[in-house]
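Action item from last meeting closed. Structure (424 res):
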């Protein structure tokens, strides 16, 4: 119902009446997402240059000497590079065209340079400067490992090449460059641990931890998966402060419900869906796998193997719907990089905090870069690994049946069935 109301509002907004007209429009708007450079595209025999793309919320619309006040989201496309940040107020002259993107009312093709007439608040400018400085420090390495760290810590994939991005997708490791609940868990645990002696009482320590998480969320920029992770972390912190048990499943359900009520279009966002699926896999599947694996291997190894297996099982059907194929070794790739993910996150986050203190952050960046080199090497193996392309419906049925067999008859029966299917 809420989704229908939002959709109807966009489709019948004032701005939709001027889509496709010959008249140019002058729009004043507030930037809501960071500009991203789109890749070049080939259409027919022509190579179209990449455009800068970002979302904005309109304030006024001027057309044919008529001024209108209208507040709807639009996507802005510009052929020229722009340095605007979320919170900046801009003037754009261009043409309105229809968009297939459900969360926006239209696409505005900028015909001239985008004009900045009011800058974002000081704290937003400060956070944007921190992101830029962090990105510049890691760009000095000049390799894919240096480009990977900003993506893992603050979700900034600007430095990553399209070839490396494809490698990460084929290997099933692209989730590492999206800030998720794992990042918030690592950061909150680190802050909670560091302040245990300075602030012995739990409630003040939870408040300080919540403050760091809020700063972290603002620094990362609130994408759908980041908001989900942030809301879930807030629910867990509230439960810890009140003395209730940490019910992660209730926290996840609360996060999903709140975020979809605020923005129903997140239900269509692949990042949000994958984030929810991965977290659900960790909550519902990982404990069962860990117990079963522990019968055949040490507990620590069983847990290390169970986590990526659970996330992969939950996400693979949707990944097949998105791309049509996944690496047959994606679980293996996730297992071998799992030991370095938390150290990179801790070292990278501490380096981010210590950047104003000069040389100290460099001491932390170097070992983080060394560990990130291992992830880039594993991702490069995907070029020589076989891919799995299966009908999504058949795969979903197979996963469900396999899981039921696993619960009923144990791990050995699953090995036998897998051998009979793939070994014949």
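Sequence:
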């Amino acid at each position: 119902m809420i989704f229908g109301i939002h959709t109807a509002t966009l489709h019948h907004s004032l701005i939709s009446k001027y889509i496709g007209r010959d008249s140019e429009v002058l729009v004043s708007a507030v930037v809501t997402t960071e500009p991203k450079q789109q890749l070049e595209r080939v259409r027919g025999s022509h190579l179209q240059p990449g455009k800068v793309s970002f979302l904005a919320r309109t304030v006024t619309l001027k057309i044919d000497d008529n001024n209108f006040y209208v507040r709807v989201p639009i996507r802005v496309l510009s052929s020229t590079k722009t340095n605007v940040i979320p919170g900046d107020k801009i003037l754009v002259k261009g043409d309105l065209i229809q968009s297939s993107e459900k969360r926006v009312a239209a696409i505005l093709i900028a015909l001239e340079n985008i004009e900045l007439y009011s800058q974002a608040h000081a704290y937003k400018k400060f956070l944007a400067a921190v992101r830029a400085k962090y990105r510049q420090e890691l760009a000095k390495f000049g390799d894919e490992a240096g480009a990977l760290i900003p993506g893992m810590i603050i979700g900034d994939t600007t430095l990553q090449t399209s070839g490396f991005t494809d490698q990460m997708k084929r290997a099933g490791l692209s989730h590492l460059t999206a800030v998720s609940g794992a990042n918030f868990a690592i950061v909150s645990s680190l802050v909670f641990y560091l302040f245990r002696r300075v602030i012995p009482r739990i409630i003040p320590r939870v408040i300080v931890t919540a403050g760091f998480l809020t700063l972290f969320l603002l620094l990362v920029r609130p994408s759908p998966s980041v908001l989900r992770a942030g809301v879930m972390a807030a629910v867990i912190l509230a439960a810890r402060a009140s003395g209730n048990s940490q019910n992660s499943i209730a926290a996840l359900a609360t996060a999903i419900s709140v975020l979809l009520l605020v923005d129903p279009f997140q239900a269509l966002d692949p990042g949000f869906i994958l984030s929810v699926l991965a977290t659900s896999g960790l909550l519902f599947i990982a404990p069962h796998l860990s117990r079963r694996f522990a019968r055949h291997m040490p507990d620590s190894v069983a847990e290390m193997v169970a986590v990526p297996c659970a996330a992969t099982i939950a996400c693979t059907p949707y990944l097949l719907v998105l791309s049509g194929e996944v690496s047959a070794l994606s679980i293996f790739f996730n297992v071998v990089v799992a030991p370095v993910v938390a150290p990179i996150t801790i070292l990278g986050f501490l380096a981010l905090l210590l950047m104003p203190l000069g040389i100290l952050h460099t001491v932390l960046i170097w070992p983080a870069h060394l560990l990130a080199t291992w992830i880039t090497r594993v991702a490069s193996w995907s070029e020589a690994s076989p891919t799995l392309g299966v009908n999504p419906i058949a795969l979903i049925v197979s996963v469900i049946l396999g899981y039921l067999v696993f619960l009923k008859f144990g791990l050995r029966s699953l090995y036998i069935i897998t051998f009979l299917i793939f070994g014949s």
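Note appended to the action item: The chain has a mean pLDDT of 77.
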